[in-house]
Amino acid sequence: MTSSTSFPVRPPRRRTVGRTAAVTAALLAGALALTACGTGSGAGSGSDGADGKGTHTVRTANGPVRVPDRPEKVVVLDTAELDSAVTLGVTPVGATTAQPGKPFLDYLPKGELKGVQNVGVVAQPDLEKIAALDPDVILTNKARDANRYDELSRIAPTVMTESTGHPWKRNFLVHADALGRKAEAKKAVARYEAHTARVTEALGGRRKAAATETSVIRFTEGADTRIYGEKAYIATLLDDVGLGRPAVAAHAKDLDGLAMEVSPEQVDEGDADVVFYCSYGSPDKSGEAEAVRSALWKNMRAVKHGRAFRVDDELWIQGIGYTAADKILDELEQKLTG
User: What is the pLDDT of residue 323?
Assistant: First the structure.
């Protein structure tokens, strides 16, 4: 499966759960007993779980899944799911990080992540650590964890969306349903719509915004440079504000339309009135440092007019959700009206 991924995916490790450690086996067995009452296409909202608390059914990419009405112990396995939890006022008991050896994404409020346990890396979750947390529900997506669905479901009801990135608004509503936070979700969506309207107004209205072609370029350590197309998280924010996109965005066919992948000698394909750029990994190793010193870069019209802005990769690309969007919208307004 090719996903609308926001960062390179490393091949998942093969793990054997519950066969080498008696304690892990016991945890998984207990989790399975709870899950037997909490998943599947049985009764909907209002039915009782094994603990006497209400449950409801969530429509997921793997079919209907029964979850507690208000889960207290949540594990999230991707950056969008973590953003959703934070946006909805839920502090997970466990979460994956975007990169090995790295903390949770820096744009997230530290106070909201206090006590959250690291359960591995995106697309490489540690199932034993997850089981040890005895979660009520697990949030992830098929792009990352499709091949682990059965194992995760034996630990706790597992709510998967089909993919990540571009359909983030729809995915957020699935997350909100799974967490019993529909009212909070409605408020988050309303705040976002009001914020985008304010930014559009600050840019001079939709007609003026549409006349400003805006491009996003990501230099990637160990991979080609990406010029983001229409099927990217960041593209939805630009579109909601009303900003125009260069023709190259509509022709980005790589990674299921996420981006156009180019060599360093083609970076000017991403030129526009305004260019936002960032690096996944070290700027020296991603090609960014060399590119921005080149004559090719310096001759781009955005660069010539002082309209090329370096931004934070964790926020603009890796962070997917309403909490990230709020900060990106502030930055868009600041840089484009300053």
Answer: 98
Sheet holding 63-68, edge to edge: 47-48, 54-60, 63-68
For the chain, the three-class secondary structure string (H helix, E strand, C coil) is CCCCCCCCCCCCCCCCCCCCCHHHHHHHHHHHHHHCCCCCCCCCCCEECCCCCEEEEEEECCEEEEEECCCCCEEECCHHHHHHHHHCCCCCCEEEECCCCCCCCCCCCHHHHCCCEEEEECCEECHHHHHHCCCCEEEEEHHHHHHHHHHHHHHCCEEEECCCCCCHHHHHHHHHHHCCCHHHHHHHHHHHHHHHHHHHHHCCCHHHHHCCEEEEEEEECCCCEEEECCCCHHHHHHHHHCCECCHHHHCCCHHHHCEEEECHHHHHHHCCCEEEEEEECCHHHHCHHHHHHCHHHHCCHHHHCCCEEECCHHHHHHCCCHHHHHHHHHHHHHHHHC
Question: Between 47 and 209, where is the model more confident?
Answer: 209
Backbone angles phi, psi at 214, to 5 degrees: -125, 130
Above 90 in pLDDT, residue 125? yes
Q: Angle at which helices 168-178 and 233-241 pack, to 10 degrees?
A: 110
Contact 172, 185 (CB under 8 A): yes
The whole-number pLDDT of residue 9 equals: 38
Q: 215: Cβ–Cβ under 8 A, 6 or more apart, which residues? A: 227, 228, 245, 246, 248, 249, 270, 271, 272, 274, 275, 276, 302
The C-alpha atoms of residue 304 and residue 326 are separated, in whole angstroms, by 29
Mind listing the pLDDT tens digit for each residue in 259-296? 999 998 899 999 999 999 999 999 999 999 999 999 99
Residue 256, token pair as written in the block: 């299921």
Distance CA 72, CA 76 (A): 13
What does the pLDDT look like over 215-235, one tens digit per residue?
Answer: 999 999 999 999 999 999 999
pTM for the predicted model, two decimal places:
0.86
